[in-house]
Design brief:
This protein is α+β, with helices and mostly antiparallel strands and about 140 residues long. About 20% of the residues lie in helices and about 20% in strands. The chain has 4 helices and 5 strands. A 5-stranded mixed β-sheet has the order 1-2-4-3-5, with helices on one face. The longest helix is centred in the middle third of the chain and has 10 residues. The chain is globular.
């Protein structure tokens, strides 16, 4: 029933929102549509998972309409400097999503802009390599 859905705008009420992370298994556009007041008022940074490009034009147009710039952001699940010291990387892929920054924020210069008509999600990293973030032995 649609009575179970709650808009992000309603959830946030009078709170100041600076970041929205969306992993909604294909409902990302719906989540963003329910956050229009927040997008227009608070201009939060948005990370939005993208498993395919079916909703990309709609998401792109919605965010551009709120003065956002949109970039691809590939993430790794495996950190070689992980807390448990685990060396076995079981992850078979990286994840790619979109990072949306309001035009008032300055992006890093190594981000690739999203083309609204992209037919596939770019993947540039080898997930089996993982990353090294934090302290490590040399």
């Amino acid at each position: 029933s649609s009575d179970l859905a709650v808009c992000v705008d309603d959830l946030a009420k009078d709170r100041r929102i600076s970041l929205i992370k969306i992993d909604a298994e294909g409902m990302e556009f719906d989540v963003l549509s329910g956050a229009r007041e927040i997008l227009g008022t608070h201009h939060p940074t948005i990370y939005c998972e993208q498993n395919d490009t079916r909703q990309l034009p709609a998401i792109h147009d919605l965010l551009i309409g709120f003065n956002y710039r949109i970039y691809w952001l590939e993430t790794h699940q495996f950190n070689k400097a992980n807390f448990r010291g685990e060396q076995d990387n079981i992850w078979w892929r990286t994840e790619t999503g979109i990072l949306a920054l309001h035009q008032s924020l300055e992006p890093r210069n190594d981000l690739a802009e999203v083309d609204r008509n992209a037919s596939k999600i770019p993947i540039g990293s080898n997930a089996r390599e993982g990353l090294f973030v934090g302290e490590h032995d040399t």
